């Protein structure tokens, strides 16, 4: 299995999405710095069986309710109750 490589751009601002998740959907096209050896912050909520956040009291994720998947993953601000 090949390891994904993200661009290191010292002197540029760090990619906030990469720092939170350890991933960057723009990959080599991202203009921000992706420091090596980062540890993504853990979500501060319970996750469902698909690894998506359960956020009681928040609106249901529109993409999840329509398609059963979430583009934002564990960092989504919406609820993913089953």
UniProtKB/TrEMBL annotation:
Picking any one GO molecular function of the record gives: DNA binding
**A Pfam family recorded for this sequence:** zf-CCCH
Alphabetized PROSITE patterns for the sequence: ZF_C3H1 (PS50103)
Which intervals hold domain C3H1-type?
A: 9-37, 55-82
Keywords linked to the UniProt accession: DNA-binding, Metal-binding, Zinc, Zinc-finger
Q: Is Transmembrane helix given among the entry's keywords?
A: no
From what superkingdom does this record's organism come? Eukaryota
Q: Zinc finger regions typed C3H1-type: which residues?
A: 9-37, 55-82
Look up keyword Zinc-finger and say if it applies: yes
Instruction: Write down what this protein is called.
Output: C3H1-type domain-containing protein
Give the originating organism. Arabidopsis thaliana
